[in-house]
């Protein structure tokens, strides 16, 4: 555990908690991608808009990165939330017409919800420029999200204009216990300091980690509706990772438990304090069911 300069377990109050992405950040932050670290890149086959992607070899010249690995399989539910073709956040397809992501990913500079027509999705490809292209019809931000990620409820739903054929991921029936193995997915910044990368990786990455004890997270962490996920500056979720999934299970039977929210402490270094905070998607099952009319994949 990396302690705050203020001492073990002390919450830093000199700056607000930092979300891991979204479209209200600076242009350079906007294009930072998902898993900070330290993974290998993987390629994907370009497919028509209604097709699903298949795993492909690492492109020539891809450099190994410490702490993780290339996406080892196809994740047909994995989504890239974009503006003007630029990746900004991750998301998870939970039905043929709904994607779950982080609330701060759909919050504009003035605190309002970004209009649906300004958002686009790419679903099911390891290459965030490929896969199923989907327009957003409606944005449903959690009604109790305040604009401060440490206030919780950092979750939103995107209704697609038309249904897609990709296989959605089911939401787990309950919150994972401490020590549960968890897989994180995303595109993104491959160094832990804010601003250290100007371009997002093009290919999907994965990182296997675990659920931390609740005490390892301190930035307004709410154990009733959030997950404390283990991470270090060498292997963690980071800027641009917001909204992307934390999964439990195994190949062919993945279940969604979390959506990336913020650092485990008020730090600009990803993984500082050995934790990342995820919104517990399982704790919001009732709200999701009500908002989607029950149209969600069930475990």
From TrEMBL:
A Pfam family: Trypsin
User: Could you provide one GO biological process annotation from this protein's UniProt record?
Assistant: proteolysis
Region annotation (Disordered) maps to 1-21
Q: Which InterPro entries did the record assign?
A: Peptidase_S1 (IPR050430), Peptidase_S1_PA (IPR009003), Peptidase_S1_PA_chymotrypsin (IPR043504), Peptidase_S1A (IPR001314), Trypsin_dom (IPR001254), TRYPSIN_HIS (IPR018114)
* Keywords of this entry: Disulfide bond, Hydrolase, Protease
What domain of life is recorded for the organism? Bacteria
SUPFAM superfamilies with a match to the protein in the record: Trypsin-like serine proteases
Q: The Peptidase S1 domain covers which part of the protein?
A: 65-293
A molecular-function term among this protein's GO annotations? serine-type endopeptidase activity
Which family, according to UniProt? Answer: Belongs to the peptidase S1 family.
> By what name is this protein known?
Trypsin-like serine protease
Native organism: Streptomyces typhae
Q: Taxonomically, what lineage is the organism?
A: Bacteria, Bacillati, Actinomycetota, Actinomycetes, Kitasatosporales
């Amino acid at each position: 555990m990396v302690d705050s300069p203020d001492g073990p377990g002390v919450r830093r109050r000199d700056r607000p908690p930092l979300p891991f992405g979204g479209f209200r950040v600076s242009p350079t932050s906007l294009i930072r991608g998902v898993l900070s670290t330290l993974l290998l890149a993987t390629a994907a086959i370009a497919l028509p808009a209604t097709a699903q992607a298949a795993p492909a070899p690492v492109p020539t010249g891809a450099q190994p990165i410490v702490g993780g690995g290339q996406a080892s399989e196809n994740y047909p539910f994995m989504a890239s939330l974009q503006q003007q073709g630029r990746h900004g956040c991750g998301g998870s397809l939970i039905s043929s017409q709904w994607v779950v992501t982080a609330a701060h990913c759909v919050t504009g500079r003035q605190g309002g919800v970004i209009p649906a027509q300004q958002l686009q999705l790419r679903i099911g490809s390891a290459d965030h420029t490929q896969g199923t292209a989907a327009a957003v019809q409606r944005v449903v931000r959690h009604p109790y999200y305040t604009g401060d990620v440490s206030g919780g409820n950092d979750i939103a739903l995107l209704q697609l204009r038309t249904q897609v054929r990709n296989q959605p991921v089911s939401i787990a029936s309950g919150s994972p216990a401490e020590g549960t193995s968890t897989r994180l997915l995303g595109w993104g910044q491959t160094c832990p300091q804010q601003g250290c990368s100007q371009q997002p990786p093009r290919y999907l990455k994965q990182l296997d980690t675990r659920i931390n004890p609740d005490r390892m997270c301190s930035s307004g962490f709410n154990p009733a509706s959030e997950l404390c996920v283990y991470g270090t500056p060498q292997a963690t979720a980071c800027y641009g990772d917001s909204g992307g999934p934390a999964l439990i299970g195994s190949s062919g039977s993945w279940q969604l438990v979390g959506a990336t929210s913020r650092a485990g402490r008020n730090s600009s270094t990803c993984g500082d304090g050995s934790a990342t905070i995820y919104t517990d998607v399982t704790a919001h099952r009732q709200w999701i069911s009500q908002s989607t009319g029950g149209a969600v994949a069930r475990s």
